[in-house]
């Protein structure tokens, strides 16, 4: 299937295959990034849950094992103002679970560790100079954006609507990731919080292709060569794939998450804001079923996860997913278990009728 005609992404990033391994915070390992890049795709390191020292260590490991282009991903959210009343309401909604688990509802809870792109992260980019830098939830402020530009990195970002894609294009990014509503993990929306108007990949990609001057990367609901071929037919120059990489041995996920992915039928995911405060697609668990996947009580991103941490820690000891996010796109049932390198090649080299 190596006869794709639009090679702008290949030329832009200096890669051999039009496959971007999605940056999945908490699940992507340096080993996954290395394997994806060495196989000819673009390996992507997620930075939002890494401290500065941890990010440097990961980049040192990656750079020592591959000379191929890599992508480093960051979140561009604005840290929320303290909201003690909202936090109390959220903890009150979870209080019955605390009592059930034998935890004092008044015990202090940890803070969430998803950090927005800032001066310290930007300095790491300047020092390590990854070939590609990607952003989620819009873009950082103009000064930080220009600092990244000056490193020579190609900048890409997620859009969940045509309006978001145009906004990104106007601000000088090098490619747009068209993120359909089928995609797993956090939605990349930043101009609208209305999840009822999010668009599916097959409708979103060609409209963004027609609306922007830069190449488009398709994401969402793509987990096998058929989806890759369909994305090219819609006008995409490359695809970004996440969920399928979760079944590789290089992925760092729990056994119950892996089993849930293996058993997925495509109708067992939903958008939920319970785990972080922002909508993200994941496999149903007890918390999502009993509270409902979306709740107005969930505090602002990324603070919702703090109150869940004690419940999550206790249940995960018993291999239970009651209070743990299991991010997944709708195409998990199409994923096949193989190594990261094999998957990267399979997605574009498999023979189709």
Descriptive report:
Helix 9 (225-233) links the parallel strand 8 and strand 9. This protein has helices at residues 8-13, 30-38, 52-65, 84-101, 119-128, 142-150, 162-170, 201-211, 225-233, 255-262, 286-291, 304-316, 340-349; strands at 19-21, 43-46, 70-75, 132-136, 154-159, 175-179, 185-186, 216-219, 238-241, 269-272, 280-283. The N and C termini lie close together (11 Å). The chain has 353 residues and is α/β, with parallel strands linked by helices. It contains 13 helices and eleven strands.
> How would the global form be characterised?
globular
Output the radius of gyration. Answer: 19 Å
Total beta strands: 11
- Share of residues in helices: 25-40%
Structural class, by secondary structure, is alpha/beta
Helix-strand string: HEHEHEHHEHEHEEHEHEHEEHHH
Number of helices: 13
Termini separation comes to 11 Å
Can you give the mean pLDDT? 96
Strand content: 5-15%
Q: What about the largest sheet?
A: 8 strands, parallel
Summary?
With 353 residues, the protein is α/β, with parallel strands linked by helices. Helices cover 37% and strands 13% of the residues.
Descriptive key words:
353 residues; 8-stranded parallel beta sheet; 3-stranded antiparallel beta sheet; 13 helices; 13% strand; globular
Describe the SSE topology.
Elements: H1 8-13, E1 19-21, H2 30-38, E2 43-46, H3 52-65, E3 70-75, H4 84-101, H5 119-128, E4 132-136, H6 142-150, E5 154-159, H7 162-170, E6 175-179, E7 185-186, H8 201-211, E8 216-219, H9 225-233, E9 238-241, H10 255-262, E10 269-272, E11 280-283, H11 286-291, H12 304-316, H13 340-349
Parallel strand pairs: 1-9, 2-3, 3-4, 4-5, 5-6, 6-8, 8-9
Antiparallel strand pairs: 7-11, 10-11
